[in-house]
Write a structure and sequence with these properties.
Length: 178
């Protein structure tokens, strides 16, 4: 996937590390007025009014995907943060999910706040867990010292493979939503 994603029938989008296809069905404008998007666990299905231009269809699908991914991110990331915070005995004062162009997560050590990029839900759960554990470790160690990496490794002994997955797939995960 690249920044010029056309949101066309048959294109693949990542979710939890899997590449899943988009199926588009066109319907009469009388059936409904705007694009609808659903997900059945195996593929995305879009119902698109046939009267839409290619650009209107792309824009509506892009908006529906953005809404869908953000809803998934709130649910998945929230539960994963809670799980790991409990295991680690650290609690952020605030968690926000937002679009970050270059970061998967960030931590404000002074304010004890964690920010997570919603696009991380495109990666496998192990990678999501790595990003979350990484940021939770920053609640106690604000830098990337040896102590910090030891803390990460204590919780996720194989964190380097998760970090590598992110590096290899980051371009595919950056949808053109900005």
């Amino acid at each position: 996937m690249n920044q010029n994603k056309a949101f066309e029938h048959g294109q693949e989008f990542l979710f939890l590390g899997k590449r899943l296809q988009l199926e588009i069905a066109k319907y009469s404008p009388r059936d409904f007025e705007s694009t609808e998007l659903s997900f059945d666990g195996k593929r995305w299905k879009a119902a698109v009014p046939s009267a839409l231009s290619r650009e209107e269809r792309r824009n509506q699908l892009k908006e529906r995907f953005l809404i869908w991914y953000r809803m998934q991110a709130k649910e998945i990331l929230g539960s994963r943060v809670f799980h790991h915070a409990q295991l680690m005995g650290v609690w952020p004062k605030e968690i926000s999910i937002k679009t970050q162009k270059r970061l998967w997560g960030s931590c404000n050590f002074r304010k004890q706040k964690i920010h997570l990029n919603w696009q991380i839900v495109m990666s496998p759960l192990e990678v999501i867990d790595y990003v979350i554990v990484h940021e939770l470790c920053h609640l106690t160690v604000p830098n990337h010292s040896k102590l910090f990496w030891r803390k990460v490794q204590k919780i996720l002994p194989n964190y380097k493979s998760q970090r590598s997955w992110l590096r290899m797939n980051q371009k595919e995960m950056m949808l053109p939503f900005q």
